[in-house]
């Protein structure tokens, strides 16, 4: 009997993970075809910043070589985007004119950089920071630039700024928020981060936005809403991501901010499923890998084994290493009148911790510097553990609390057990 | 003089009245170790915890090193001129009684002798008194009334030989540990020995006792009156002895019978079970070798002298005085209380056990000293003296080696007196005490380990104290300072001593001068000691005379006493209750020593080890009272009386009677905000001895509910912490403070910065609800202080934090520091490689050693690299470079 045909649109990290999950269950369950709009096999997009900084190379960040797809009997069409889905014919149509029939279709089209409302964005020298090709173009431009502008004070913008600064450029980062990473960090941690990166030579303009870019063909600078003007021959826009749902939308699938999927990750067409940054599940979109890995696992279970385990969106702590600085943030992170906050701050070494407590329960943690206890705090939040006398000691971490509190969950012990079970 | 080899010196311990021999080893002018002197009869090589820690208290930190006038350093001449000129002017204008000396049972016999000679013989006033007044003056008065002399009949050997030992008003286990242990060994060797403790408290001493009779506070004289009356009823008296050697028996017995006609009445007076009283009385009646060992619990009373005589009455009536294992035995608190008495160091003594009321004695002393204006009437006793100072009658006082602002009753009055006194001279070895704070002139004195002389212990044994360290700064010996002032007053010829041996010789000569057996104190056989012989003097018990050159173990075995008739006197004693009026709800405050502290802590608080035993002022409370007042162990409680307040930690104790509390005497303004317990004690004294009633004062007890409690460890000493309550403890490095606030919770961060040593390098833990605050400060990277406060949770134990003071911490240790505990529990796993699973380099290297040598296998073991995969290049690099 001929195998069912599984077509996957998009060849990013979600697809790479899904292929591994499918293959680990049954290599021959489907005839698999993958379309990707970038050249070559999947690579680790998270490693683009080290690639920009020159701390790694393209080979090292490759997740799957062309040979891998061949060896695993997967047809890969790279550098070729799908432009239409014919749901009645169960067929997809590529930019290059390829038509391909599917029994099951997976959309893993990812996301694209968010737009900013600045004028004059078509000038040469203004880049997104999303793909290997972006990195290549930025590197070419940086060789002939003195001043660089990075727009966006989130993780990606900071990584880009640090990478450019390490190449000797004068880097100014412009961020709309009042402090860096204002979606993950509280003002104090954001300020510590700013101070540390400022020591590496990066300048920061906070609470401001680009009004318009300046230059004729080539970028020469930017005017800010505050009226301030900055020289720049190179600009990177890294203000966030937007799900890529245009293709789905044009195919008539239900879309909100992203392609809407149910708990089994099915779109409004039951032959079409989706995962990753392109989807919207119960109103939520995704940007971190952990939930996407979970989606890949459940999707593979359903496609191969027929298991219908619903996807549940679990809270995820943000564990980041920004340019070598460790950060952790989970749950609430801003002070509020009804919250009790405990902070521990070492002005000298720039270490910082904040815990937020409501009704004697931990509801948020922000760690800067030493983040080893992050997972444990996250666990306490999940368990809704009553804190009691533990409170003043809690901020010093697991080891300090375990010594004389046998009731406190020792999550590392659990983790070790799990590791052994693997 | 430089010491560069280790040397060993035999000397005497400076603490209690047991007078143990100590072998001190020093190197490079530092005391490095102490051990018991095996050749000393008082202790045969044993030392208690305080004595064994002497080397930890001998540092020069905190010493008074230079003379000061009004806090300004001056040279010796200026300081001595100031003292002598002021004394001379005041004596000239207001007479000799306008000046006074207040001495200490800590200074040596030679110092005492010179002070007494100067004041009584040359200035012409009896105003020499001493802190021994607070310790054993009632025992002295009792002995003088009974024996006609201030004579302790017994010796320590009697502890080994007694068949019944009554310990009354004595917590020997803590206050005289070496004697207690000797008793314990004796009892072990001779299990038939019975030990009975009479004490309202169930003290540590009771561990040894066959029976503890927890009598009502202050009722000891009722019990001994009851005993005398019982002995008469049961025909257990030694009538032959009474007839041959005593007088006053009939009156004494009649009075005892009137007050305590039978067991039931006696037991009722004392709050005891009649059966227990009967048991005790029967024992005493039939045990020839009965020893009554008594101390401050008897003496520190408004009827202390009567209590002493009530005890002695029973011993005289049974002929049990000065016989092996059978005597009344008063044990003194201080190392040289008896030495001070020998020279006349109390205001109501003249010199060498001679008395003001004996014209022959006055003549003898005047002649011997060639004294131009010998005082002929007694001077002011301690409490009276400080009251006279406040009234302006005494205008200059010279305090030597003691801390009356803490140790006298009604310390607020004492402080008022000193504040308004025209000239307060304090010679001391310690710079900052509650008393030196009130001084106009400070004179730096040498201390134990630096000075030479003699002390006399509780069994009349004279021992040499030998100096082996150089005096620091410009410190001088007390006798030298006194001679310098005497010379400036124009008495140079009579005070031209060049060495303590010169003084001792003169003292010994005076003791034998015109004596011929008429006075108990006679050490004339030692009057011709050469300086070398003096230095080599072995411990010896007085009297030491031509006929008894080896000294005298026991006195009065022959039944001859020093009264005019040669007979011992029994006194009719009307037992009285403590003077303090208790109102409804008042508690009886008992005060005393804690095991490992000494007096006002100037020495013992320098040893962290000695503070381990108890490190804060405390109040012992009975279980029932604590329950009633909802006080838990460790709670702060307040004792209040006389407009003064004492604050300490509650110790719920089954040692304490309901309605009674106990508080230690040691703490003071230097070591606690409200630690001066004697401030609660009214200045009520025994009419005969002048000894204040420090044992049974009415106080109000209140459990405190602090708004917050905290602790501070600091390298720098903080003069006055900015909290409502504080107490201080010395650490090996730096100091530790317990703190509490009773009113508003402060605005922590600003408040801490306002009084703690300033530093820009701070770690802070803040709580938006302000229930907790913790902070640490660093100076040049070294931990300067740690402060922790909490409104509702317990603070971490301080021991580990204390070890961190002065250390340079790495960034991880800095973040752990405020947890208050070692962070060994949190394995340092090195730089985080995998952020997703928080896996550090050290853990990865460990796993690699364990065989995980690929990215995949590391992922299986540690999960690293299995989430976002960003760390895989680093993992690979680690594997490649392994």
Automatic annotation (TrEMBL), chain A:
Its cofactor is FAD. Residues 5-281 form the FAD/NAD(P)-binding domain. Belongs to the FAD-dependent oxidoreductase family. InterPro entries: FAD-bd_OxRdtase, FAD/NAD-bd_sf, FAD/NAD-binding_dom, FAD/NAD-linked_Rdtase_dimer_sf, Rubredoxin_C. It comes from Marinobacterium rhizophilum. Residues 318-384 form the NADH-rubredoxin oxidoreductase C-terminal domain. It comes from the Bacteria. Transmembrane segments: none annotated. This is NAD(P)/FAD-dependent oxidoreductase. Keywords: FAD, Flavoprotein.
TrEMBL record, chain B:
Its cofactor is Mo-bis(molybdopterin guanine dinucleotide); [4Fe-4S] cluster. Keywords: 4Fe-4S, Iron, Iron-sulfur, Metal-binding, Molybdenum, Nitrate assimilation, Oxidoreductase. The keyword Metal-binding applies. InterPro entries: Asp_de-COase-like_dom_sf, BFD-like_2Fe2S-bd_dom, BFD-like_2Fe2S-bd_dom_sf, CT_Nitrate-R-NapA-like, MoPterin_dinucl-bd_dom, Mopterin_OxRdtase, Mopterin_OxRdtase_4Fe-4S_dom, Mopterin_OxRdtase_prok_CS. Residues 6-62 form the 4Fe-4S Mo/W bis-MGD-type domain. It comes from the Bacteria. Belongs to the prokaryotic molybdopterin-containing oxidoreductase family. NasA/NapA/NarB subfamily. This is Molybdopterin-dependent oxidoreductase. It comes from Marinobacterium rhizophilum.
């Amino acid at each position: 009997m001929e195998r069912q045909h599984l077509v996957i649109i998009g060849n990013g990290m979600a697809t790479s993970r899904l292929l591994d999950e499918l293959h680990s269950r049954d290599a021959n369950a489907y005839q698999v075809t993958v379309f990707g709009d970038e050249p070559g096999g999947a690579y680790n997009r998270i490693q683009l910043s080290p690639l920009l900084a020159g701390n790694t190379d393209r080979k090292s960040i490759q997740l799957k070589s062309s040979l891998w797809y061949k060896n695993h009997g997967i047809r890969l069409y790279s550098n070729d985007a799908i432009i239409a889905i014919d749901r009645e014919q169960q067929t997809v149509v590529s930019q290059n004119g390829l038509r391909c029939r599917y029994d099951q279709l997976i959309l893993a089209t990812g996301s694209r950089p968010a737009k900013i409302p600045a004028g004059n964005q078509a000038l040469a020298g203004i880049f997104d920071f999303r793909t290997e090709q972006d990195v290549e173009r930025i590197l070419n431009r940086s060789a002939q630039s003195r001043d660089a502008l990075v727009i966006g004070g989130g993780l990606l913008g900071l990584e880009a700024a640090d990478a450019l600064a390490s190449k000797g450029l004068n880097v100014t980062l412009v961020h709309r928020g009042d402090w860096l990473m204002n979606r993950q960090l509280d003002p104090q941690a954001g300020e510590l981060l700013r101070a540390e990166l400022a020591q590496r030579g990066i300048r920061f303009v906070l609470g401001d936005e680009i009004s318009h870019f300046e230059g004729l063909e080539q970028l020469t600078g930017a005017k800010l809403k505050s009226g301030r003007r900055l020289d720049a021959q190179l600009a990177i826009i890294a203000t966030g991501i937007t799900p890529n749902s245009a293709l789905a939308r044009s195919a008539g699938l239900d879309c909100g901010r992203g392609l809407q999927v149910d708990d089994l990750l099915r779109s409004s067409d039951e032959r079409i499923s989706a995962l990753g940054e392109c989807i919207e599940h119960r109103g939520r979109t995704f940007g971190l890998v952990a939930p996407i890995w979970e989606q890949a696992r459940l999707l593979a279970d359903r496609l191969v084994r027929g298991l219908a385990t619903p996807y549940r969106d679990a809270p995820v702590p943000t564990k980041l290493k920004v340019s070598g600085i460790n950060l952790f943030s989970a749950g609430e992170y801003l002070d509020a009148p009804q919250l009790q906050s405990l902070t521990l701050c070492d002005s000298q070494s720039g270490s910082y911790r904040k815990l937020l407590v409501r009704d004697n329960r931990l509801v948020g943690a922000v760690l800067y510097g030493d983040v080893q206890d992050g997972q444990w705090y996250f666990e306490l939040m999940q368990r809704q553990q009553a804190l009691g006398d533990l409170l003043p000691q809690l901020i010093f971490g697991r080891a300090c609390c375990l010594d004389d509190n046998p009731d406190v969950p020792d999550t590392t012990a659990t983790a070790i057990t799990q590791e052994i079970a693997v | 003089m430089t010491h560069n080899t280790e040397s060993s010196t035999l000397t005497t311990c400076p603490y209690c009245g047991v007078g143990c021999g100590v072998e001190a080893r020093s190197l490079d002018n530092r005391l490095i170790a102490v051990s018991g002197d095996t050749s000393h009869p008082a202790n045969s090589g044993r030392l208690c915890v305080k004595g064994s820690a002497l080397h930890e208290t001998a540092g020069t930190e905190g010493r008074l090193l230079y003379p000061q006038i009004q806090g300004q350093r001056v040279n010796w001449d200026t300081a001595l001129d100031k003292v002598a000129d002021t004394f001379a002017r005041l004596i000239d204008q207001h007479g000799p009684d306008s000046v006074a000396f207040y001495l200490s049972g800590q200074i040596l016999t030679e110092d005492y002798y010179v002070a007494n000679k100067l004041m009584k013989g040359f200035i012409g006033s009896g105003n020499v008194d001493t802190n021994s007044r607070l310790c054993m003056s009632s025992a002295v008065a009792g002995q003088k009334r009974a024996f006609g002399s201030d004579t302790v009949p017994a010796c320590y050997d009697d502890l080994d030989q007694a068949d019944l030992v009554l310990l009354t008003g004595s917590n020997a286990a803590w206050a005289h540990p070496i004697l207690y242990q000797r008793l314990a060994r004796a009892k072990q060797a001779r299990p038939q020995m019975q030990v009975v403790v009479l004490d309202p408290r169930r003290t540590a001493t009771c561990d040894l006792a066959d029976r503890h009779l927890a009598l009502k506070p202050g009722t000891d004289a009722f019990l001994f009156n009851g005993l005398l009356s019982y002995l008469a009823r049961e025909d257990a008296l030694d009538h032959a002895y009474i007839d041959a050697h005593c007088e006053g028996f009939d009156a004494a017995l009649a009075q005892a019978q009137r007050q305590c006609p039978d067991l039931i009445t006696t037991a009722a007076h004392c709050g005891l079970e009649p059966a227990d009283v009967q048991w005790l009385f029967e024992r005493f009646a039939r045990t020839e070798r009965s020893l009554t060992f008594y101390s401050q619990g008897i003496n520190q009373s408004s009827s202390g002298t009567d209590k002493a005589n009530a005890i002695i009455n029973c011993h005289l009536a049974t002929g049990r005085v000065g016989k092996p294992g059978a005597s009344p035995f008063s044990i003194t608190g201080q190392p040289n209380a008896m030495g001070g008495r020998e020279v006349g160091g109390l205001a109501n003594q003249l010199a060498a056990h001679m008395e003001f009321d004996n014209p022959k004695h006055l003549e003898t002393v005047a002649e011997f000293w060639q004294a131009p204006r010998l005082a002929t009437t007694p001077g002011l006793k301690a409490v009276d003296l400080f009251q006279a100072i406040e009234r302006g009658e005494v205008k200059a006082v010279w305090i030597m080696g003691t801390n009356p602002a803490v140790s006298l009753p009604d310390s607020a009055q004492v402080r008022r007196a000193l504040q308004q006194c025209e000239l307060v001279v304090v010679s001391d070895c310690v710079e900052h005490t509650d008393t030196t704070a009130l001084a106009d002139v400070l004179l730096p004195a040498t201390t134990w380990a630096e000075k030479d002389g003699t002390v006399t212990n509780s069994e009349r044994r004279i021992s040499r104290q030998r100096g082996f360290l150089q005096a620091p700064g410009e410190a001088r010996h007390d006798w030298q300072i006194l001679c310098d002032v005497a010379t400036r007053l124009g008495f140079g010829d009579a005070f031209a001593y060049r060495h303590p041996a010169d003084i001792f010789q003169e003292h010994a000569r005076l003791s034998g001068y015109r004596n011929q057996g008429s006075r108990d104190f006679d050490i004339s056989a030692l009057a011709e000691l050469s300086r070398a012989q003096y230095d080599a003097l072995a411990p010896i018990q007085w009297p030491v005379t031509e006929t008894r050159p080896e000294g005298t173990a026991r006195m009065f075995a022959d039944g001859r006493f020093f009264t005019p008739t040669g007979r011992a006197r029994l006194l009719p004693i009307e037992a009285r209750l403590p003077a303090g009026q208790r109102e409804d709800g008042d508690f009886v405050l008992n005060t005393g020593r804690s095991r490992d502290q000494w007096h006002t802590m100037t020495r013992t608080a320098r040893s962290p080890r000695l503070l381990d035993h108890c490190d804060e002022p405390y109040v012992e409370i009975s279980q029932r009272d604590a329950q009633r007042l909802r006080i838990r162990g460790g709670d702060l409680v307040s004792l209040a009386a006389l407009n003064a307040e004492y604050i300490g930690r509650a110790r719920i104790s089954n040692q304490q009677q309901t309605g009674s509390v106990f508080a230690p005497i040691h703490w003071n303004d230097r070591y606690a905000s409200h630690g001066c317990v004697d401030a609660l004690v009214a200045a009520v004294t025994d009419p005969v001895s002048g000894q204040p009633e420090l044992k049974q004062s009415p106080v109000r007890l209140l459990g405190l509910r602090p708004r917050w409690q905290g602790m501070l460890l600091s390298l720098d000493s903080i003069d006055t912490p900015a909290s409502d309550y504080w107490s201080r403890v010395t650490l090996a490095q730096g100091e530790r403070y317990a703190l509490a606030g009773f009113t508003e919770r402060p605005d922590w961060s600003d408040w801490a910065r306002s009084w703690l040593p300033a530093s820009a390098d701070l770690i802070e833990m803040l709580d938006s609800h302000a229930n907790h605050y913790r902070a640490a400060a660093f100076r040049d990277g070294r931990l300067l202080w740690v402060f922790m406060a909490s409104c509702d949770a317990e603070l971490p134990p301080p021991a580990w934090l204390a070890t961190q003071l002065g250390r340079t911490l790495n960034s991880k240790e800095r973040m752990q520091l405020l947890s208050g505990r070692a962070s060994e529990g949190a394995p340092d796993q090195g730089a985080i490689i995998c952020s997703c699973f928080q896996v550090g380099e050290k853990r990865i290297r460990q796993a690699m050693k364990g065989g995980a040598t690929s990215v995949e296998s590391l992922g299986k073991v540690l999960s690293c690299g299995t989430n976002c995969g960003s760390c895989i290049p680093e993992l690979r690099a680690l594997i490649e470079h392994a």
